Structure formats: C-alpha cells, structure tokens
Fold:
Amino acid sequence: MHPVTVDDFEDYLANYIGHSHKVALLLDYDGTLAPIAPHPDLAVFPLETKNILQRLSNMPDVYITIISGRSVDNVMKMVGIDGITYAGNHGLEIIHPDGTKFVHPVPAELEEQVRELLKNLQDQVCKEGAWVENKGVVLTFHYRETPTYVRAEIVPQACKLIESHGFKIGVSHCAVEARPPVAWNKGRASIYILRTAFGYDWSERIRIIYAGDDVTDEDAMQALKGMAATFRVASSRIIRTAAERRLPNTDSVLMMLKWLERHLSQREPGGEDAARSLKRKNVTESSSSMKVEVTCVPK
Structure:
C-alpha cells in the first residue's frame, strides 16, 4: 500500500464538503489520532496531529468531537483541546463545548454489580500482565501484555464473568469490555451530538467526516451511512467495514486533517456563490482549453 498523501483526499472529499458547508469531524482517539500503545497511558497524542486539530477547532466552519472508549475525563486529558465535544465510554458520557454534560441513564442496580464484577475479575483473571481498567459504568479487561497461551484460558473466563453479572461484552484491541445493558453506542451518540449541535435537520446543513479504527466505530459508520464521509483505520484490507474508505494508519488520518485544513483555508469569502463566480471566471479565461474531471465513486 503506497503512503497516503494530502492530495489523495481531493477527489473523495472536495466535492462532498464544497465551499460553504460547515464540517463536523467525529474522530476516535486510540488507533485513529494516537497510535495504539501497550498501555492506555502511553497512547500519547502526536504533537503535529494535536496542533492541526487545534487550528481546525479555531475555524468557524469546523465542529470537532472526539468519541472514544475511554472515560470522558481521560480522553479530555489525553487530547487537551478546549472548545470541542468529548464523548467517553462509547458515548455514554458526553461533555459539550460549553461544559454541559450528558450521561446516559443506566439501571441503578448496576453500581453494585460493577463493584462485584471488578473484584471478581481482579481476583480470578488478572494474572500474567492482565488487568482491569475501571471507567465507571464500564470496565475493560486488558490482556495485551499477557502470553498467548494464558489468553486462551482467561479471556473466555472473563467473558463468562461479565455476562453473569448482567453486562454486555464488547470486544476491542486485546481487551474485553463490560458494558451496561443499554441501547446506546457510538452510532446513537453521534446522532445525538449532531442533533444537539445543529438541530433536527443536521444532515442537510452540515458535512460530516467520521474516522475510527475499532469495531465499536462500525456502529457510527452504519448509523451515518449515506450522510457522512467515513474512514476505517486499519492496516488489513480484509477487515469488513461499513466505512466508505480505508486508511492504513494514524499517519494517514493526519494527512486527511492536513487536506481539510488546506481546503477550508482556500475558501473564498461569500461561500458557494463566490466559488461559483470564481469558477465561471476561470472557465472564461481558459476557454481555449478544456479539462475533463473524472470522479471515482466507490461501491
């Protein structure tokens, strides 16, 4: 796979975004903005990516959401950009740019069950490098540093414990999550965020870019199908996805953000009308030659 360049996004995104629409960026953190690390605390936000996202956040036509499986406080700490939306625990908790917070309701009895499950996981399956991350209403059992022969024993055992305590199983990168049994995911959270920010006619008013690397991001890609430009970040070509495009790594996500900054910086004052006038002017001045633009539409 050839290295992704800024220009690779021109054909796919330029016509979709246009010259006047606001752009909503919804981005996962781990594996999308920051490379996957052996421990969540080591998944440092690359400075170049942070700087460009910071500049985009200061543009009036850009609305940014970081939507992560981390707790909302943790992902805010890792990203460290003010004035954007943060969604944690796959959207169960959301902090808007004005500081207001949304927390999806969960059954009250789950609080005691979370404590019991945490203790049982720690007592029974936390060995050989495996550990449990407590994210409030969500627990994550990590086994990235665990030898393969041990995983075969403890991962099924962890899944049984999660289900026996009334939680849903979520599979992530070398991890198993215990999620509350509620009908909420990154897809529903994305719709809620966009509706809250832009109103019920959000799909007609804005252009949306979603990028994520995890199976949990597929819920958002499915929910936004036909209404967004979606990217699955994955080095493998055989991973099934609802996304319209694939990106091989976090560096390619950076290239996409660079393209977006360049595209938005070139907008003419006056938006679409000014852009059309400029296009007509260029066509008139170049009447002696003709260019044919071919756009490839994915299946």
